[in-house]
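Morning run. Coffee first, then this:
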Amino acid sequence: MGAWTTSSITSRYLVALLDEAGHAPDALLLAAGLSRDALAAPDLAMPLPAFRELWARAAALRPDIGLTMVERFPSGQMHMLAHLALRSATVEAALRDVCRHASVTSVADVLGFENEGSIACFSYASRAPGDDNPWMAEHYLAMAVHFIGQATGRTLPLQCVQFKGPALAPLAAYQKRFGVIPEFNASRNAISFDAQALVWPLLTHDAYLHGILERVAREHASRAPDALLEQVREQIALQLLRSEAATLDSIARACQLTARALRNRLTQRDSGFRSLLDDVRRDLAREHLARGLSVSETAYLLGFSEAAALQHACRRWFGQAAGELRDAVRRA
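And here it is:
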């Protein structure tokens, strides 16, 4: 029930790859509450679990997808964060830019940069609880090597490549991308390289455009999901799954607050109990129907007075009746 999302443009190319292979992921998109048109929107908010599933399905067809995804980007079609980095003056400035503004893509992304004298290091990690997307780690490190090479006209002098997980693709694919065989099951996802490369100038440098993009990045930086809102969502889901009536009073007690205090704190966050209850019901309705539960069973589990009330809610949430949603997801 978390609110961790990403605006990574890789979503649209992962979907395109699956379409080409005859494995259109429409059911997955529907379950995530997304339309195909939303994939091209600059304010895309792809839930991380759905994002990981797209990668997993693509990797089943192309095990090297994490290493080669960057090659699927058409010329100029990159996330704003990549555009910002490429307008920087030097390799070091570009890496510091992507680390500083990583939350523009996803607040879950943690990009690190260290300069330890003769060796520099660029790393990737995720701060989202339970998020394990090894293909994204490969993608970030592959992008760094690829774009630096393009922007400088030189090959980054890599000393070491590390991944926290096992090899996902043939070793030859890693050798082709990085020029070295990575260390797998390491303590981090990182590339280490000769620090002399940090001063290399970028041929794509544009100070004027960089200033504009940096200002936009600051304005669009994502924020981590609010802890209280997440706690309220989780407690609502838990009580509904227990077939209990999720009320303001019961949720407040679960959060060790009075009903008045909880209402006030939600108001301070421009939210409210009814809207959160509606959000959780929507997500659970999608999950229950996708698992084959009947409309009546789903209505009962979500605390609706009758199946007709759920039907009305589904038309508001998804633009279709509950039975149509269930059939579409299960058919796909």
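The mean pLDDT is 90. Good start to the day.
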